[in-house]
Design goal:
The structure is a homodimer. In chain A, 28% of the residues lie in helices and 28% in strands. Chain A is built from 7 helices and 13 strands. In chain A, the strands form 3 sheets. A 7-stranded mixed sheet of chain A has the order 8-10-7-11-9-12-13, with helices on both faces. The first copy, chain A, has a 4-stranded mixed sheet with strand order 3-6-4-5, with helices on one face. A two-stranded antiparallel ribbon of chain A has the order 1-2. In chain A, helix 1 packs parallel to helix 3, helix 2 packs parallel to helix 3 and helix 2 packs parallel to helix 4. At the A-B interface, strand 2, strand 3, helix 2, strand 4 and strand 5 of A face strand 2, strand 3, helix 2, strand 4 and strand 5 of B. Strand 2 of chain A pairs antiparallel with strand 3 of chain B.
């Protein structure tokens, strides 16, 4: 499969977004702007033997994951995905069939999330598979949910069970785009982050950006049934690749969410509270606290 | 150098663009929109031993090139660069000094072109260096210059000598951003492309997109003094990595440009004419023509 056949394969299957006025086939894509709109841009590079294994993982799931991690970042801003730009370094040894399945994993998910494949760059080489996707999304002006903005007293939520993802849902997780948009419309989270490196690390990012600390209730952490370690709580907080959302709500809106959580297509778990200061602590059922000094998974 | 130190190195040196309202440090960057504006988006992935050689090329020049090729694509749309998103797969074996120099190559050029480093993704692995940069630019609504739009009778221009770039200016070429903006303001090219794969290939893209052919005057092709091959004309048209612009102007505006070419900071060479049909031909001084059936450099 040469570069042109490969691009045709992508183009033939792609969703077309109304704001993308020029797509694949020129030196750059052209994206229209509207008033009262902002764009969000996020990029993720995934590499063989780091984020997936070409020798054993199904190509369609590898492709799916490469886009899904970007959709999760977009969700974490409460933005709506629009257009993806896909850069590939393809090993010469991959068969056309493999590459076709891989692309199908990307384009099927793009279709599902109404995201146009609007450009990119294709290369063949003697090295391992490397995939970079840059995702462009849109959000109403001023409505993006940042990592900063959490306030002492806010409740902290996560959208699903945590841990053990590497052996299970790392390829099949649902990017929480629709859930984030609905959450933002109805409850306006004060801060949000997606859980890619594990709650212990990502919540730390949120707290640092917001200039505050947190108390996590150990028994409130939803532990995935995929966790098999001897220290399930630690696994849940540090395994990483959960791709659930972690967000904060002031007490009143937190109660409202708990009463009406069925409006979301995912579960929500209240796991703790934002505090003044900069400490992250874990509290057990007896009320004993200890510093949350675990760190999440770091690739490579 | 860990991921955070590396990001700090980038952030500390970066240009800040007024439309980028959130930059490095959240799940995504946020870019403001204005009315009467469109965005262009282009992505290039560069790999060790394909586009540069980590073992012998200076790190600063490698970094420079990774951004420069994107700026050249942005120029080819007559758009103004705004924000770059840099994804890295860094070999574990690279020293902090090497990485620092490499980043300086990127950030120095970004500063020169008033481009913010607004995000990206950093990874360390056991594989070779892979760099993807996605560049966001802006253009007044409807003013982007596409590959399509050339008409029979249009003159064809290039902005500099061609060929031999791999041994010379592949790392130091000037992305023709300012020249493209000035050209578009004063002469409105009907079509434009940047020369990355060689004139023979890139002009073919332009002609195909415009639904027309071209006659190239063999003796009018500016051959770079860096060309050392036995067939200099062929080298000039197929070596690739020139990163000059190729653009088309109707006869009247073409004459005007030739009279006032000193307003541009680069040379312009009139090399031929757009024709009806779909043939690309090369014409020699005696008026003999032959099909232009050379193909430019294909990486890998």
């Amino acid at each position: 499969m040469n570069e042109y056949e490969l691009i045709d394969q992508i183009r033939g299957k792609a969703w077309s977004h109304k704001l993308v006025s020029r797509s694949i086939g020129d030196d750059a894509a052209i994206v229209d702007t509207t008033t009262d709109q902002q764009f969000v841009v996020t990029a993720d590079m995934l590499m063989d033997k780091v984020h997936f294994d070409v020798s054993s993982d199904p190509p369609q799931l590898i492709g799916r994951k490469c886009l899904a991690v970007n959709l999760s970042d977009c969700a974490a801003m409460a933005a709506e995905p629009m257009a993806a730009f896909i850069s590939l370094a393809l090993p010469r040894t991959l068969s056309d069939g493999w590459v076709g399945e891989f692309l199908r994993g990307i384009t099927d998910l793009a279709w599902e999330y109404e995201t146009e494949i609007a450009g990119g760059d294709t290369n063949v080489w003697n090295g391992p598979l490397v995939v970079n996707i840059t995702l462009l999304g849109q959000v109403s002006r001023g409505k993006a949910v940042l990592r900063q903005g959490a306030k002492p007293g806010d409740r902290i939520f996560v959208t699903g069970p945590l841990g053990g993802s590497r052996g299970s849902k790392q390829f099949t997780f649902v990017p929480r785009v629709k859930e984030a948009l609905e959450l933002n419309r109805q409850f306006q989270p004060t801060a949000m982050v997606d859980l890619s490196d594990g709650l212990a690390t990502d919540l730390r990012h949120l707290c640092r950006a917001s200039g505050c600390g947190a108390v996590i209730e150990a028994d409130a952490i939803p532990i995935s049934s995929a966790v098999e370690s001897k220290d399930p709580l630690r696994s849940a907080m540090t395994d990483g690749e959960d791709f659930e959302l972690c967000f904060c709500l002031p007490p009143g809106r937190a109660d409202a969410l708990k009463k009406r959580s069925q409006i979301l297509s995912c579960a929500v778990y209240d796991i703790g509270e934002i505090t003044a200061g900069d400490k992250l602590v874990l509290r057990d059922l007896e009320g004993h606290t200890r510093p949350l000094d675990w760190y999440g998974y770091v690739h490579g």
